[in-house]
Amino acid sequence: LQAVAQNCDALQYADDVLRADREVVLQAVAQNGYALYYAADVLRADRDFVLQAVAQNGYALEYADDVFRADREVVLQAVAQNGMALEYADEVLRSDREVVMQAVAQNDSALQYADDVLRADREVVLQAVAQNGWALQYADDILR
């Protein structure tokens, strides 16, 4: 626990029992949600645990159990922290207007992971371009 408290990357060297220990892994995830990568499957499949990880680092969604990539609340939390986490969201949520708007508001480049229909949505594209004009490269041709 002390090693993980000092450096969350120490979790990668921990044995399987410690990787499944909620307290130990939570200590690592509190430093960097990406530490979910080293967590035991049982913790990656724990919704509350995953919510904590993606709140700290949206990219942790990549290592969450697949069911959470389709969980709207988890994905909204992830993209609020890092819009680029939209890349790891289920296809259905990449076509969810609210999820995509949240993602592009946080990071304009998240537009590249949005469903084609939303990349042709004027309001979504304007939200992204308001952040950075370069986001226009990800918009549908009809809006360029």
The total count of helices amounts to 10
- Beta content: under 5%
Which bin fits the share of residues in helices? 40-55%
Task: Quote the average pLDDT.
Answer: 96
* Biggest sheet architecture: none
Number of strands: 0
Low-confidence stretches: none
Radius of gyration, rounded?
Answer: 17 Å
Please tell me what the overall shape is: elongated
SS-based class = mainly alpha
Query: What is the straight-line distance between the termini?
Result: 52 Å
**Order of secondary-structure elements:** HHHHHHHHHH
Walk me through this protein's architecture.
The protein contains ten helices and no strands. 49% of the residues lie in helices and 0% in strands. By secondary structure, the protein is mainly α. The mean pLDDT is 96. Helix 7 (72-81) runs parallel beside helix 8 (97-106). 45% of the residues are buried. It is elongated, with a radius of gyration of 17 Å.
What's the quick description here?
The protein has 144 residues and is mainly alpha-helical. The protein contains 10 helices and no strands.
Attribute tags:
144 residues, mainly alpha
List the helices and strands and how they pair.
Elements: H1 2-6, H2 16-19, H3 22-31, H4 41-44, H5 47-56, H6 66-69, H7 72-81, H8 97-106, H9 116-119, H10 122-131
